[in-house]
């Protein structure tokens, strides 16, 4: 029998009250926990993923240590957006289990977190550069439909490019578009609007990366 202390995080008070974010996390954990295993406590945090000051998380960690239990989370992105933070938690000597990635090793969790962090950094950096360049040329962003369309196209291309080191190896390994979407979601990646990937969105990225050669 394995004992777990479950940790849940939502980004806003509204999500916490509505249960929209919590419900999905609870479902993942309920599906993961086997008969005979036990979730001895649950801790819920209402906090942005950018903020690492997590009172409820540290309570969960201390509870798990006292009870010789493992810390259980639904998805890696509900835990933290920073590799350094995830590493610091692992250094506490506590077993970290991700319900959506039950067989992932500590090393693999580091890799997935690093990829997600780098993706965010690249998108943010390239978006800032694109806006700065547009401003330098005197472009009035938001006032011209053609400018907005070009900006959106550039942003979509930049986002696709950021995914190149993540998606290309999976494509070249022969994985289907549906399987790539599933693995991106499993790793905690999200679309530009913060939602999970669907096959069509993966196909759009691949179409850019392979310039129309995706079947």
DSSP strand (E) fraction?
5-15%
CATH class assignment of the largest domain: Alpha Beta
Using the CA coordinates, give the radius of gyration: 20 Å
Share of helical residues: 40-55%
In total, the number of strands is: 4
Mind explaining what this structure looks like?
This protein has 9 helices and 4 strands, in the order βααβαβαβααααα. The protein has 215 residues and is α/β, with parallel strands linked by helices. The chain folds into 2 domains: 101 residues, Resolvase, N-terminal catalytic domain (Rossmann fold), CATH 3.40.50; 94 residues, no CATH class. The longest helix has 31 residues. About 3% of the residues have low confidence.
SSE map:
Blueprint: E1 3-10, H1 13-18, H2 20-32, E2 38-46, H3 55-66, E3 70-73, H4 83-90, E4 96-98, H5 106-136, H6 145-162, H7 164-172, H8 177-186, H9 199-209
Helix pairs in contact: 4-5, 5-6, 6-9, 8-9
Quick tags:
4 strands, about 220 residues, globular, alpha/beta, about 55% helix, Rossmann fold
Short structural description:
The protein is 55% helix and 11% strand.
């Amino acid at each position: 029998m394995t004992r777990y202390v479950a940790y849940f995080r939502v980004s806003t008070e509204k999500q916490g009250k509505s249960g929209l974010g919590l419900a999905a996390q609870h479902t993942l954990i309920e599906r993961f926990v086997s008969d005979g295993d036990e979730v001895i406590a649950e801790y819920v945090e209402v906090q942005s993923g950018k903020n690492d000051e997590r009172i409820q998380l540290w309570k969960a960690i201390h509870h798990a240590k006292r009870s010789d239990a493992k810390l259980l989370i639904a998805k890696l992105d509900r835990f933290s957006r920073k590799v350094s933070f995830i590493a610091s938690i692992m250094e506490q000597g506590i077993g970290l289990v991700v319900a959506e990635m039950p067989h992932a090793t500590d090393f693999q969790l580091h890799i997935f977190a690093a990829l997600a962090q780098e993706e965010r950094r690249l998108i943010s950096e390239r978006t800032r550069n694109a806006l700065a360049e547009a401003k330098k040329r005197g472009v009035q962003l938001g006032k011209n439909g053609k400018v907005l369309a070009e900006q959106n196209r550039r942003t979509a291309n930049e986002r696709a490019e950021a995914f190149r080191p993540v998606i290309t190896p999976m494509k070249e390994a022969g994985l289907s578009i549906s399987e790539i979407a599933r693995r991106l979601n499993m790793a905690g990646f999200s679309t530009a609007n913060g939602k999970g990937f669907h096959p069509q969105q993966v196909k759009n990225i691949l179409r850019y990366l392979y310039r129309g050669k995706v079947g």
